[in-house]
Amino acid sequence: MGNLIGALKLLGWSNQTLTPNRGEDFVEKNIGFPCRVVTGNKAVQSVFDIDLFRKEEFHFGVAKIRKDFTKGVCPSVTSNGKIHEKNKGFLIEVMSKAYGEILASTASAVLSNISKWGSKPSDFEVKLTAVVVDALFPTVFGKSTPPFNAEEVDLYADGAIELRSDILEAIAGEDLDKTRQALLSILGKIKTSERYRKLMDLGKSHGLGEEEATAQLLFSVMFNGLRGIRGNLLTSFARLDTISAEDREELREEALAALRKHGGLTRQALEEMPKIESFVLEALRAGPSPDFFSTIATRSTTVKYTTESGQREVEVKEGERVYASSYWALRDPAVFDKPDDFVWRRFLGPDGEARMEHHVIFHGRLTDTPAANNHMCPGKDVALSVIKGSIAILNTFFGWELQEPPVWTGTKIARFGQPDNEVKIRSFWVQHSEDFKKIFPSHFDDIRHGLGEVDGIDVLVKVKTGSYRGAGTNGNVYIRLYDDKGRQSRELQLDVCWKDDFEKGSEGQYKLKDVKVASAILKMELFRDGSNPDDDWYCDYVSVQLNPDNNGPTYDFPVHRWIKKNDHVWLIPGKCELSLDDPTTKDR
After folding, report:
1. CA distance linking residue 55 with residue 169, whole number of Å
2. What is the pLDDT of residue 232?
3. How far apart are CA 537 and CA 338, in angstroms?
4. Which of 214, 151, 149 minimizes the C-alpha distance to 187?
5. How far is 479 from 510, CA to CA, in rounded Å?
């Protein structure tokens, strides 16, 4: 019963079951099997020693790989010794070739998929899976007719592993008919793909037969590649929603400058985006996927490590299972200051580069080069290219509103570092249209049409500041408009350069150009930035007229409230109240 209870605890509370006592490590626990749980950063790094710790074939912690989903061939990710060297050498060479094509393929995959999303994309997480499939698979297999389908690849990945406890597997009660159909379909597409014969010849040069090489590609690309990249891309995307508008703009400006300079998403462009890289690495630190590394001691050994209480050592016996938690290693306060905070600049500059040596993900240190004599994922650099490139394009040229804020508690084992709650998009739109058109001209019309974009219009905004003492402000004031088709304007600053705006009792008029919304306007966001922090502003009302030169419709927004620095207020026309979907609950 101990194994069952341990597994149920891990499945119910995930990483929180492993919450460390930072005074000791290699703690004996049962998480579905007896093992030593390792949570300290330096202690986890010791488990990456390929001579001291081996992987358990066909197993990932409490899960095991279904052998019929790999044609009975042990995947590289769980193989050891000479067999591992052959498998890993083959996959390193495959991924090396993919690396040269991955950025162009990523840009094409992101933009071609977005053109099909519409302004209110449903099943967003499924759509992001399709982006990863379309970015990664062509760089490995070339063209496939018919093309790989994201839904069937997801089905394969769902069916490829099962819980190692027969009791728990019976509780899960999975129907494998569809997943096995997906397996057969995927195998057919692999074997008829453009590069299959070249891949088989490459496998042969590493001592692999055709069935072995095919099985390595099947699991490594369809499971490890897809799930690892999609999980880390999704969590990076969701993390953008947790930083300030000013920080988003800072990331956007860096990426836009690099994309302009190099005419698209190139290796040189990505190398000139250190802030994008730091943001992504911090997202992967806060929510890594995978978040553990499960091994078995090859021989009895003494492991030395450091804790809050000083230098320690532990005897690990031959055959003992060791479960290393990347999740807690990346929250070790001895290495990362304020580890529970999301600090997207953490990996910038010389100090940030030094921290990368302690960033343990993809079964190794981030600074490790994949090799036959280590555990680092052979597709590490390909995966990071897809994630960083996708985030650069999404944050630079698109805006969105989530249905609810993302939440991470570390208790949802099935989410693999992604937010606990499914990421759902309420609205999605293009921004920086002119730059987008210049940098990615072949995609511009399709995306504009697909998202239901409209031509920009003139908008006349009138703002009345209250007459109370201290009602005026020298701070910056902005609005954002939302129409009934899900379109959302860019951030619109209300400013007349030669005038002192928002003086007590005054009414200002602001004619704005190229605003991409249309009638009817459903709501307006009124907000201030962080300038003039002690300068509160009392706004009486705002009115918005579309196409004023043609006597377009006017929408009146009573405000009647004080607005402080960084305050965001959501208003609906004609009513002095917040809209029901105002995400700022403190103002209700």
Report:
1. 22
2. 97
3. 34
4. 214
5. 11
| Contact of 373 with 367, CB cutoff 8 Å | no
Pick the closest to residue 138 from 31, 253, 81, 221 (CA basis).
221
Cβ pair 73, 86 in contact under 8 A: no
- Distance CA(220)–CA(91), nearest Å, equals 8
Helix (H) or strand (E) holding 63: strand 63-65
Distance, CA of 346 to CA of 366 (rounded, Å): 14
Q: pLDDT category, 585, cuts 50, 70, 90?
A: very low
pTM score of the predicted model: 0.83
Q: Could you give the C-alpha distances from 427 to 362, 483, 488, 573, in angstroms and in order?
A: 33, 10, 8, 19
Closest CA to 40 of 327, 417, 347: 327
DSSP 172-190: H----HHHHHHHHHHHHHH
**Greatest Cα pair distance in the chain:** 84
Q: What is the DSSP string of 281-292?
A: HHHHHHS-SS-E
Per-residue pLDDT band for 493 (boundaries 50, 70, 90) equals: very high
Is the pLDDT score of 301 beyond 60? yes
- For residue 492, give both structure tokens: 């619109």
User: 433 φ, ψ to 5°?
Assistant: -60, -40
Burial class (CB in 10 A: 0-12, 13-18, 19+), 452: middle
Output 62 or 211, whichever has higher pLDDT: 211
Q: Which of 131-140, 304-313, 413-422 has the lowest mean pLDDT?
A: 304-313
Model confidence over 506-534: pLDDT tens digits?
Answer: 999 999 999 988 899 999 999 999 888 88
Which has the closest alpha carbon to 477: 517, 506, 510, 520?
510
Condensed to tens digits (0 to 9), the pLDDT of residues 530-555 reads 888 889 999 999 999 999 999 999 99
State pLDDT tens for residues 176-185.
899 999 999 9
pLDDT band at 271 (very low <50, low <70, confident <90, very high): very high
Is residue 381 left, alpha or beta, with left meaning phi > 0 and alpha meaning psi from -120 to 50?
alpha
**Which residue from 120, 118, 122, 178 is spatially nearest to 154, judged by alpha carbons?**
178
Q: In 3-state terms, what secondary structure has residue 41?
A: helix
- Ordered DSSP codes for 126-166: HHHHHHHHHHHHHHHH---SSPP-HHHHHHHHHHHEEES-H
Per DSSP, 272 falls in state T
* Rounded Cα gap, residues 479 and 477, in angstroms: 7
The percentage of the chain sitting over the pLDDT mark of 90, rounded to a whole number, equals 80
Is the Cβ–Cβ distance between 31 and 10 less than 8 Å?
Answer: yes
